[in-house]
Write a structure and sequence with these properties.
Number of strands: 3
Radius of gyration: 22 Å
Length: about 240
């Protein structure tokens, strides 16, 4: 049973467990399933707030049909396919697409807008690390406006950059190997701005008042958090370049 696919009845029990606010571990114990199975099932089917048993069952049937279909052949070196490679690399294309869906769902649970997370996940699991707007529209089945808005958000967070090939060609959106370094530095900058604002609040409210003391404590914490982030990023980069 633990290795078999979830049944529709099990999915209904998962939905009931979520409604009852049970933890993933408790739901897994009731179904005699690994907790990781329950976590993946919920993540790829709407998350804890959007999970619906019938929808999850239909989505699983669709994924199963896709995985049984012959994988399209992708020319060597092209950016086609979610992973940017053909079937010759030995990867299970359906599994890669499923992983990208799970990554997008995780990013959404961590606070990233859902469409933004889908675009970033699609780019991140692509070997070449870049796609055009048309690529993203086709792969995600969304409108160009949705892609454009998501790219704007990712650019502001320094997670994606634009690149136009020499001699013309379509503009591409690129994720570099160091995007998380730059994203963390951007986070440190936001912490610094918040720390300064909190200091201003502490001064305005009065350091001896409870509200002022709260603001002062927040400013100290945000300053330290930002400094720790910058140090960790620089230390890691020095280690890689050494």
């Amino acid at each position: 049973m633990p290795g078999a696919r979830l049944t529709q009845e099990e999915r209904r029990l998962i939905a009931a467990g979520l409604t009852a606010r049970l933890g993933y571990g408790e739901i897994a114990r009731q179904l005699d399933r690994p907790t990781s199975t329950i976590t993946r099932e919920i993540a790829r089917n709407g998350g804890p707030s959007g999970y619906r048993a019938d929808n999850a069952q239909r989505a699983t049937v669709r994924r199963s049909r896709r995985s049984k279909a012959p994988a399209p052949r992708v020319p060597e070196g092209s950016a086609g396919g979610t992973g940017g490679t053909g079937a010759a690399d030995g990867r299970d294309q359906a599994a890669v697409e499923q992983y990208a869906t799970q990554l997008a769902e995780l990013l959404a649970q961590l606070g990233m807008p859902r469409m933004v997370g889908r675009v970033l996940a699609c780019l991140y699991v692509t070997d070449c690390g870049s796609l055009t707007a048309a690529d993203l529209v086709q792969r995600l089945g969304v409108s160009p406006a949705s892609v454009s808005k998501a790219i704007g958000y990712l650019e502001a967070q320094e997670l994606v950059r634009r690149e136009r090939p020499e001699g013309g060609g379509r503009e591409r959106y690129v994720v570099d190997d160091d995007i998380w370094y730059r994203a963390m530095l951007a986070s440190a900058q936001r912490n610094a701005a918040l720390a300064e604002f909190a200091r201003d609040g502490a001064e305005l409210l009065g350091a001896r008042t409870p509200a002022g003391a709260r603001m002062a404590e927040a400013s100290v914490f945000l300053d330290l958090a930002g400094t720790d982030i910058v140090r960790a990023v620089r230390r890691r980069r020095r280690g890689q370049s050494g």
